[in-house]
């Protein structure tokens, strides 16, 4: 009987094995993960879970019985140490497993602050895994001082939680503004103002020089010579795809594990999906760091492992929760040259990214209607005139135009 192995028990790995069974695969399935917890949601870690509003079991993507009921062997707390692509074997826990098809859904890891500037001091944290958040939860006490390095979505979400719990929060961003890499100035302005109303200090255009402290961090020294005393630090400076295992197996690496449109790597019988995988998109290649892509790409790869032969077409979407604001993003804004602003009901607002006459993406703040209409328009390849976006009372009309 065929044996399919999936390495990486995160969102993509869990989606892939479930889809294999849903599509009728009757062979053996093994899902291997380095963490001891069963596959779980990561987005709530820096929000509801850190706030204490969600228990660990509610993070789990499937019930404890799902894997056994579906004849999926779940090996947790184990690391794959080697893959022999020619022999179609892998080594895990000192044991050699054979596979017929192998999928690498190894995900990503957070960038860490260099040890040379104090990144290895006690009290310096990243936000990526359950263990990361469990390690820092005790730090979140009212009146304590936290410095958050990085003004991207992870850093801003952590800032929102800290502010809600009564901490003194400072965010430092080396770029000229927060969200520099991922959003328009209009979106950055919205969130800067939102955080300001909750007492968060945001320092833009100034980088971290070093962290001070003997064994535990006590202050952050900035590039402009200023000093921020602190009780702990959170680094939200991006993530890196986990490619070491794939590279050792002989898979081509290009901004992650390089795959073709089906999800197959340069090695026969080895596939990849999720944060760690780059795939053809338009005239170039793309690697997406999102829950939506992890699920959709993994399910597409599962079908292709069974012979579907259907190229994966990404339909990017993202979200971020900060305070009482839900940001929903549809599309990719790369290459935009102007923004159209639409006011929604109450405080709702959306920013529509255009390149010439082409709609690329939408950022919608507490405006689910704008997000849903924008997402459908982008997926349909339709671009309404900017004045129609601003002036049409019911956005649904744009889907019929």
From TrEMBL:
Name used for this protein in its record: 3-phenylpropionate/trans-cinnamate dioxygenase ferredoxin reductase subunit
The keyword Flavoprotein is annotated on this UniProt entry: yes
Domain Reductase C-terminal, residue spans: 317-395
Database matches in InterPro entries: FAD-oxidoreductase/Apoptosis, FAD/NAD-bd_sf, FAD/NAD-binding_dom, FAD/NAD-linked_Rdtase_dimer_sf, Reductase_C
GO cellular component term of the entry, any: cytoplasm
Keyword Flavoprotein: yes
Cofactor or coenzyme needed: FAD
UniProt keywords, alphabetically: Dioxygenase, FAD, Flavoprotein, Oxidoreductase
Chain ranges of the FAD/NAD(P)-binding domain: 4-298
GO molecular function: dioxygenase activity; oxidoreductase activity, acting on NAD(P)H
Domain of life assignment: Bacteria
């Amino acid at each position: 009987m065929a044996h399919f192995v999936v390495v990486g028990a995160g969102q993509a790995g869990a989606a892939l094995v479930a889809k294999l069974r849903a599509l009728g695969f009757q062979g053996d399935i093994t899902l291997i993960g380095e963490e001891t917890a069963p596959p779980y949601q990561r987005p709530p870690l820096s929000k509801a879970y850190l706030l204490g509003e969600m228990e660990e079991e509610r993070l789990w993507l499937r019930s404890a019985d799902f894997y056994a009921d579906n004849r999926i062997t779940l090996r947790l707390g184990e690391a794959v140490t080697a893959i022999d692509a020619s022999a179609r074997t892998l080594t895990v826990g000192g044991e050699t497993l054979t596979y017929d098809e192998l999928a690498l859904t190894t995900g990503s890891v957070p960038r860490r602050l260099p040890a040379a500037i104090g990144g290895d001091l006690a009290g310096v944290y990243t936000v990526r895994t359950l263990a990361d958040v469990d390690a820092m939860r005790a730090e979140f006490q009212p009146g304590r001082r936290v410095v958050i390095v990085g003004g991207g979505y992870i850093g801003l979400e952590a800032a929102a939680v800290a502010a809600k719990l009564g901490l003194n929060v400072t965010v430092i961003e080396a770029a000229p503004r927060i969200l520099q890499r991922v959003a328009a100035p209009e979106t950055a302005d919205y969130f800067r103002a939102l955080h300001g109303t909750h007492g968060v200090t945001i320092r833009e255009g100034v980088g971290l020089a070093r962290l001070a402290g003997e064994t535990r961090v006590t202050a952050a020294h900035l590039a402009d010579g200023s000093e921020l005393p602190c009780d702990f630090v959170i680094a939200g400076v991006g993530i890196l795809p986990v490619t070491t295992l794939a590279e050792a197996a002989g898979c081509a690496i290009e901004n992650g594990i390089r795959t073709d449109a089906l999800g197959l790597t340069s090695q026969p019988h080895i596939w990849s999906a999720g944060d760690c995988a780059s795939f053809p998109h338009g005239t170039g290649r793309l690697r997406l760091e999102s829950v939506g892509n992890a699920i959709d790409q993994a399910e597409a790869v599962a079908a292709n492992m069974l012979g579907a032969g259907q190229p994966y077409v990404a339909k990017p979407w993202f979200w971020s929760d900060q305070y009482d604001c839900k940001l929903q993003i549809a599309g990719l804004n790369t290459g935009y040259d102007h923004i159209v602003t639409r006011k929604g009901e109450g405080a709702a607002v959306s920013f529509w990214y255009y390149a010439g006459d082409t709609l690329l993406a939408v950022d919608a703040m507490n405006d689910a209607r704008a997000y849903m209409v924008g997402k459908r328009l982008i997926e349909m390849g339709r671009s309404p005139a900017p004045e129609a976006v601003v002036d049409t009372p019911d956005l649904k009309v744009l889907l019929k135009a």
